[in-house]
Amino acid sequence: MTVTELSKTDRRSGAHTADLTIVGGAGHVGIPLVLSFAAKGLTVNVNDLNRTNLAALKSGRLPFIEYGAEDLLSAALRDHKLIFTNTPDAISKTGPIIVTIGTPVDEFLNPERHVVLNCLDSLLPYVSDGQLLVLRSTLYPGTTDVIATHLKRQKRDLKVAFCPERIVQGYGIEELSRMPQIISGTTPEAVREATDLFRIIAPEIVELSPIEAEFAKLFGNAYRYIEFAATNQFYLIAQAAGVDYQRILSAMKHNYPRAKNIPKPGYAAGPCLMKDTMQLSAFARNEFSLGNAAMLINEGLPLHVIGDLRRRYDLGKMTVGLLGMAFKSEIDDVRASLSYKFKKVLNGLAREVLTTDPFVTIDPDLLPLDEVVARSDILILCTPHLGYKSADLKGKPVVDVWGLLENANVIS
Ligand SMILES: NC(=O)c1ccc[n+]([C@@H]2O[C@H](COP(=O)([O-])OP(=O)(O)OC[C@H]3O[C@@H](n4cnc5c(N)ncnc54)[C@H](O)[C@@H]3O)[C@@H](O)[C@H]2O)c1
Q: 166 CA distance to ligand 1 centroid (A)?
């Protein structure tokens, strides 16, 4: 399907009069949001540059794993609640516009602030004054106010709100209906309209000012990233002392409420946690010492594991098998997955590196688990997919930082 075809079709099908437009609606944050609003009866204009994902949705397929979404997508298509568009001129001129596009950091780990501004500039000729504009991407502190000022300078009168997304990837449908929604706006009208909008899908509303809401989102992600770093550092300390951290952790948590939230060690990765910790660090003039330390620990864990293997084995004569390439368990998303850091580093050290994943569909190098196990001399459990828990790893030595595997020959 070409861009023009999609645009024309969708203009005919009423894109300009949808109840709600979601720009970035075919992305990881966009899809659960689109489907949650559609399930409440709203007609949603799913506006996205990614034509492949739009075509998948249109045909009733999810472009990636989103638990609980399939039935909602079928129902929304059946009830004609979705309109698919892929150009800025096809956004609806009435009704709120929610923007859920990616907000990356650059090669200096500083936020690419122009991404959201460029997107808004592309939309501006096609929106009407008075429309509610909800920013939902994770934003560098101060961005919402910068955008409101930018719009005023251009004499545009949009109501600007920032309502951050806080779902955990893959489980957005369930979480959106269960979690409080933080709302903020640059005017009381923006707050009121954003509140009315999110009351449709959220059980509770919590109001903050825009900069407070921006911090709330970033602090939440950075805190999680620091928690993973703390447990990863404990793991490394215990390992250096030759003791089993999993045994210690399980004893610490046993009927002891103050330790119950300590996470298991593991490769903390994905498109948000490090990126958002670095946004906060950039805001704090790189003086976010805990955040920077967390990055060194979490990003360094694969290097520790590889260093340990190099001390024990002659890797140059060995084949290493990597189990799991998604950035976390039970999903298919490889963005910023540390499995690929393993692959990259080991490619320069081992005789051969083989990879497998039961969920990932976009990596042509992946092999079936059995083949990876059979051909490898050593295995590394990179992603704790539950299927690996009791898999037959044929007694091959395996590194399991996560403490997931049962009956395996775990290298300690
Ligand atoms: N992935 C998560 O679980 C999660 C959770 C909370 C918050 N966030 C934040 O939400 C934002 C989006 O993350 P994501 O994981 O959904 O990213 P994503 O890349 O999966 O989705 C973004 C979508 O926006 C589309 N897009 C980009 N520019 C566009 C434009 N100008 N017009 C129309 N569409 C455009 C892309 O094609 C893509 O489909 C980021 O700020 C992220 O930090 C993500």
A: 13
Q: Is the pLDDT of residue 275 over 60?
A: yes
Atom index in ligand 1 nearest the CA of residue 170 equals 3
Give the number of the atom of ligand 1 that is nearest the alpha carbon of residue 164.
Answer: 7
> pLDDT tens digit string along 348-359?
999 999 999 999
Using a pLDDT cut of 90, give the percent of the chain over it.
93
* Residues near 234 by beta carbon (within 8 Å), at least 6 away in sequence: 245, 248, 249, 265
**Alpha-helical segments (H) within 13-113:** 30-39, 51-58, 69-78
Element (H, E) at 212: helix 210-240
Per residue in 108-146, pLDDT tens?
Answer: 888 998 999 999 999 999 999 999 999 999 999 999 999
* Strand pairing class (20-23; 97-99): parallel
Burial annotation 179-188 (CB, 10 A radius, 16+ → b, else e): bebbbbbbee
Question: % helix / strand / coil in the chain, to the nearest 5?
Answer: 45, 15, 40
Query: pLDDT-based confidence at 17, cuts 50/70/90?
Result: confident
Q: What's the token pair of residue 47? A: 């506006």
C-beta 272 within 6 A of ligand 1: yes
pTM of the complete model: 0.94
**How much is the average pLDDT of 205-228?**
98
Please report the pLDDT score of residue 6 as a whole number: 44
Environment class of residue 348 by beta-carbon count within 10 Å: exposed (0-12), middle (13-18) or buried (19+)?
A: exposed
Helical H segments across 79-128, by residue range: 114-123
106, 145, 273 from 278: Cα distances, Å? 10, 21, 9
Pocket test for ligand 1, best of 7, 10, 29 (most atoms within 8 A of CB): 29
Ligand 1, atom 15: closest residue by C-alpha:
28
